[in-house]
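Sequence only, no structure available. Ideas?
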Amino acid sequence: MMKKIFLALLFTIISSLFLYSEDTNWVIRIRDSQGNVKKLMTVQDCLSEISNLTVLRGAPNDAVNLLLTNEFQLWQFSSQIIEQELVYLKAVEEGYDKDEEVLKLISKERDNQLSQLYMQEKVSDDFAVVTDAEKRKFFNDNRAKIQASVGPNVTYEQIAMEIETTILQERMRNEYDKILESAKTNYNLKYSVTADPCITIEDKTVPLSEFNDMFNESLKQAGANIPAALRIQARDGMFKAFVAREVMMYEAKKSGFYDTPQAKSIENFLTRSAVTANYIDKTIRSSIPKPTEEEINLAYEKYGKMYNIDSLPYADAQKALATLVTESKTQQKYQILVTDLRYRHNIEKNLDLLLNKN
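Reply:
I predicted one. Tokens follow.
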């Protein structure tokens, strides 16, 4: 309940702040060498950005409160925003925001995030709260199965976290069932994991290939041979979640949720992140030469034990070390780019407007 209230306040708090003149009502202002304003972020813009961090990165409310009351945390936050904005402006200037693959990625991630957020608004405030009593009851009711699976001496404390996850998963499956049953009546929903299209919601259809691609990618990431029976069970469970997400997406668009300030802010956040990542990948990471054997050996000496790379098979270890070398060089070049962009722009900050505004 508190998280929902906090997120709502982030978009309305501006009305309760002191009124500033148009010339000073900004927290971050970026101008080019000719004095043209390239980016201006108001208090409301920054609060929206903080809200995005909460929603998309799972930051707890305490972390957000700390950000708004701690000068150092606020300085780090503003520096991160400025760096990304500078690179984003550069990427747009060079046309990297027109990349078709990036546009598809942005659209897909927007739908994922907004459908999840919309669904969160539909469930009860205490949906994700699992009490100790509930977990202990689950343990006692399923003690024989748990002991057969984990071991005869397993204790409640050892698997309390796993029990909580199991309970939440069961709750979510129940929510999916409710969503699907309601949609059959409200939107003439039809779906089948073997038909094409696999989903029909009024005049919208979803091709079976879209689900199959997602499911096959999940199997690939699992990195293990899954028995046929378990594969079918996993497929059916994932398909139900897939259909529920499509229903929530459809309903969110139909209800106008996509046009709310919060949804637009999240879409802008995702756009900037995706375009910036694409620019870094195409202009920096792709220019890094293949790591040499000497560089890989040096990376092993520095990171082998830290990241447990020394426990991997040789081929996997070499690949992991090569990635570390490449990413280290990418970060170095990125910092050079950011330093140059900072030099070419006039950056002003008025962070006092944000302090103690929570």
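Confidence is low (pLDDT under 50) at residues 1-22.
Hope that gets you unstuck.
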